[in-house]
């Protein structure tokens, strides 16, 4: 079973990857970035936070953070939606997820930000917004290949594949091609030499 938490008007949803990895100073990344940036934003009066929830993600060493905020009342206003997603990125949410959230917001998805979990958040102030019978991670390629048989929640809420948002990406190894400083020829950008390993 998968449980879907979709951002409400007064919530920020963060996916904090490798939360415990050490920074240059040795303290955990989550401490150095998430907590300190959040503390500084609250202290400066930039973010009005009433609750913070930190829970383990489905992946080892990853966490989800949910913040109840009082700053963003008009969730349907694109400017408010972009501001919320920018705060999520600033507080350390996963970059790919953040880019996809921004593109969903720009394309008019009702709620661009979501967390998918394999269990309900214990003692949380609300239940999940949706649930599906899927027991494996919602792999984008697999869901896309399933077409009409894809998870209906995935199709309606997450919906777009990375290549629909940003174009296809290759997973094949490539040879390094150094770029010159100054004007870079587009032909050089478009050159691809696959490595043989």
Secondary structure layout:
Elements: E1 2-6, E2 11-16, H1 29-43, E3 49-56, E4 63-69, H2 78-90, H3 95-106, E5 114-117, E6 130-132, H4 140-146, H5 152-158, H6 162-166, H7 186-190
Antiparallel strand pairs: 1-5, 1-6, 2-4, 3-4
Helix pairs in contact: 2-3
Write up this protein:
The protein is an alpha+beta fold and 197 residues long. It has one domain. Helices cover 32% and strands 17% of the residues. Helix 2 (78-90) packs antiparallel against helix 3. The longest helix has 15 residues, at 29-43. The model has no long low-confidence stretch (mean pLDDT 84).
Domains (count): 1
Relative helix content: 25-40%
Helix and strand run:
EEHEEHHEEHHHH
Strand order of the largest sheet: 5-1-6
- Specify Rg, calculated over alpha carbons: 19 Å
Spatial shape: globular
Number of strands: 6
Number of helices: 7
Mean pLDDT, to the nearest integer, reads 84
Distance between the termini: 38 Å
Largest sheet features = 3 strands, antiparallel
Report strand %.
15-25%
- SS content category: alpha+beta
User: Spans with pLDDT under 50 lasting ≥5 residues?
Assistant: none
Précis, in short:
The protein is an alpha+beta fold. Helix content is 32%, strand content 17%.
Index terms:
about 200 residues; alpha+beta; 3-stranded antiparallel β-sheet; 7 helices; about 15% strand
